[in-house]
Design brief:
This protein has about 300 residues and is an alpha+beta fold. Among the domains are: about 100 residues, LON domain-like (Archaeosine Trna-guanine Transglycosylase, Chain: A, domain 4, Roll), CATH 2.30.130.40; about 100 residues. The protein has five helices and nine strands, in the order E-E-E-E-H-E-E-E-E-E-H-H-H-H. Strands 3-5-7-8-9 form a five-stranded mixed beta barrel. Helix 2 runs parallel beside helix 3, helix 2 runs parallel beside helix 5 and helix 3 packs across helix 5. The longest helix is centred in the last third of the chain and has 28 residues. It starts with 18 loop residues before the first strand and ends in a 6-residue tail after the last helix. This is Lon N-terminal domain-containing protein. It comes from Kalanchoe fedtschenkoi (Lavender scallops). Pfam families: LON_substr_bdg. Keywords: Coiled coil.
């Protein structure tokens, strides 16, 4: 049943403050306006064993888009200046159209989308005439829509003859939904911006660098063992995963590679402390490395015969 027309704010669910009470919008999968291509960071599947989370990083070095962008129009020059006149303030309250998806977008990540559902085609027509920014929020039918999401900025687009759109979007700042102000023809919310809070520790910069280096080291080991288990040669790109990224954007990059564990990704996205995010990622990667090490040892003892 379609939701009633309303322009009044809808409060967030009191039962679960990190989720919005939007079950009527999620009767069909939120990805019904489907994206047909994976993000360029080659998000990785999760190997869940009991309550311990594992991730597979064997594809992480495929960092380039497997998507033909030569025919897509670059829209970056059309961005509204109001979004680029300084860093957004956390107490700013702005309206933002929302796109619920069964994935988590991180700042800096690339998201290719195909838009064919009517209400989101309408949204795109509006965005192409304004500032080309919308909010991506993780949602599923079981738990509803998350409160924290990430702005997707359209950097390239192509409109097809049947009014479908192919988009290349890039994750920008994070936001927290305060109220839903409209549900038709698509969601529009009032949001505030979300930023990591600076640490009061005088040595925090050095500590963050050391922590980021540890996370990168674990990622390299996971990639190496994962490639070995899958019979793939080690790729030279895996020697420099950070590519001069500072700890905060690097922590978002690491989180973006954990696709297949969207609730874990959502938890990482919602953290407002870079050190806490890196520590959580380090623990996940350490668990993964332990699992892969055991699997590699078993494979060495009991090698399978090639068919």
């Amino acid at each position: 049943m379609a939701p009633p027309e309303s322009l009044q704010p809808i409060s967030l669910s009191k039962q679960n403050p990190s989720r919005m009470a939007l079950p009527h919008l999620l009767q069909s999968p939120p990805s019904s306006s489907a994206f047909t291509h994976k993000p360029s960071l080659s998000p990785l599947s999760s190997l869940n064993r009991g309550s311990t989370k594992f991730v597979s990083l064997s594809s992480i070095t495929s960092r380039r888009l497997k998507f033909n962008t030569s025919s897509l129009r670059c829209s970056a020059s059309s961005f509204s200046e109001k979004h680029h006149t300084g860093s957004p303030k956390s107490d700013d309250l702005v309206e933002l159209p929302l796109f619920p998806l069964q994935l988590v977008l991180f700042p800096g990540a690339i998201l290719p989308l195909q838009i064919f559902e009517f209400r989101y085609r309408m949204m795109m027509h509006t965005l192409l005439q304004t500032d080309l920014r919308f909010g991506v929020i993780y949602a599923d039918a079981a738990t509803g829509a998350a409160e924290v999401g990430c702005v997707g900025e359209v950097v390239k687009h192509e409109k097809l003859a049947d009014d479908r759109f192919f988009l290349i979007c890039k994750g920008q700042e994070r936001f927290r939904v305060v109220n839903i102000v409209r549900t038709k023809p698509y969601l529009v919310a009032q949001v505030t911006w979300l930023e990591d809070k600076p640490s009061s520790d005088a040595n925090s910069a050095e500590d963050l660098e050391a922590l980021a280096a540890e996370v990168e080291s674990y990622m390299k080991d996971v990639i190496r063992l994962s490639n070995r288990l899958n019979g793939k040669p080690e790729k030279p790109e895996a020697t420099d995963l950070r590519r001069n990224m500072f700890p905060t954007p690097f922590s978002f990059f690491v989180g973006s590679t954990f696709e297949g564990a969207p609730r874990e990704q959502q938890a990482l996205l919602e953290l407002e402390d870079t050190a806490a995010r890196l520590k959580r990622e380090k623990e996940t990667l350490r668990n993964t490395l332990n699992y892969l090490t055991a699997a590699s040892a078993v494979k060495d003892v009991f090698p399978t015969s090639s068919s």
